[in-house]
Amino acid sequence: MGVIATPDRSPGSVVSQVSPNWLTTRVDFLVNWARSNSMWPMPFGTACCAIEFMAAAASRYDIARFGMERMSFSPRQADVLICAGRLPFKLAPVIRRIYDQMPQPKWVISMGACASTGGIFDNYAMVQGIDTVVPVDVYVPGCPPRPEGLLYGILLLQKKIRGETLADPSIRIEQTLDEHGLRLSPERIDELSEPFGNSLHQTRSA
Amino acid sequence: MNPSADALERHFGSAIRRVTESCGDTIVYVELGRLREILAWLKDTPDQAYIYLVDVTAVEYREPERPLEVVYELFAFSRKVGLRVKAELPKDQPLEVDSMVPLWAGANWLEREVYDMFGITFRGHPDLRRILMWETYAEGYPLRKDFPLRGRFSRSEQVRQALNANPEAHYSLEELGIAESYQELPADMRGRLARGERGQIAEPKGGA
Description:
Shape of chain B: globular
Oligomer: heterodimer
Strand content of chain B: 15-25%
Low-confidence stretches of chain B: none
Mean pLDDT of chain B: 84
Strand order of the largest sheet of chain B: 1-2-5-4-3
Distance between the termini of chain B: 60 Å
Order of helices and strands of chain B: HEEHEEEEHEHHH
Largest interface: A-B, 33 and 31 residues
Shape of chain A: elongated
Number of helices of chain B: 6
Structural class of chain A: alpha/beta
Radius of gyration of chain A: 22 Å
CATH class of the largest domain in chain B: Alpha Beta
CATH class of the domain at 40-166 and 180-193 in chain A: Alpha Beta
CATH superfamily of the largest domain in chain B: NADH:ubiquinone oxidoreductase Nqo5 subunit
CATH topology of the largest domain in chain B: Beta Polymerase, domain 2
Distance between the termini of chain A: 83 Å
Helix content of chain B: 25-40%
CATH topology of the domain at 40-166 and 180-193 in chain A: Rossmann fold
Number of strands of chain B: 7
CATH architecture of the domain at 40-166 and 180-193 in chain A: 3-Layer(aba) Sandwich
Helix content of chain A: 25-40%
Radius of gyration of chain B: 21 Å
Largest sheet of chain B: 5 strands, mixed
């Protein structure tokens, strides 16, 4: 009983002398299939979202099912930066350096309201959305998001990766800071940081 | 009422401005100029023995004419009693208090935090730098009532200054505990640590 079927020796058949174990596919499909199913996360947990992230990694939710069980605590062996929690201005250069140290291909998940928009912390100390500092692929809303929310974000990221193509090298270009040390134009950062929702009713006292 | 309040009034007389009680805690308002002397007496007198400085903080009230208060929370382990000592800092004078680091070494970072958040200067402090905000933070003192909630600079300027800060330079050599092995570090790290955060962040090129 072998795995390879017994060659058909009946008259009229041609028996190949090479191994029959080959297949045809598209490079894009194969590469994206491999990439999307073996994303190594770089956890950047700063607040309560990190607790939900840990729950997502534990046995009940188990992101190992999506090939992400290997937490990479070094950015140099990581594929996905998951910012779980608020980002103060003092940590902005830290997450920027971690992002710069990650090799291509790399993606970023912004987990939670604070990482995505600043959340309730519309104040002097907090970055109003990490997309003013690093490019973000998937935003997961919630305060904090439940593990299912993060898993859905991961599935969306996998879907996004499966739509990538090697024919477009521009998506892998390293996005560095400009000569002012900014990722976006100052006008764009001010626009992204505008207060919204309940923050509109907070007064500027001076 | 904590009996230490009566003892203070007997010993220091008019330097004890008033004594109140709130939620079971005794609060003693003292004269600003004699604060160090009074706290030293509370710490070193055997009957008092407030050997533990729980917290140093400050209060600014909503009414603009009310003075700031600097607050010392003391505790005596031997008797399991606490005492709150406050001194008032009028706003028309420089906000200066004597440092209590010579009495309690633990006052070091507490006073740095009060300096960082309120701008109160502690005379005689060995290392009065910002502790929560970065050292080049130029927007003011965040817990003062005249400080805008979102800071004084635009968001883009705040992001620019944050991204231009050196994340490895937030700590002094002593805090990192590597002062003795300084010469063995790589040259570029030596340079970054030596410059520290005290340097100025470069102005934007092209006037952005």
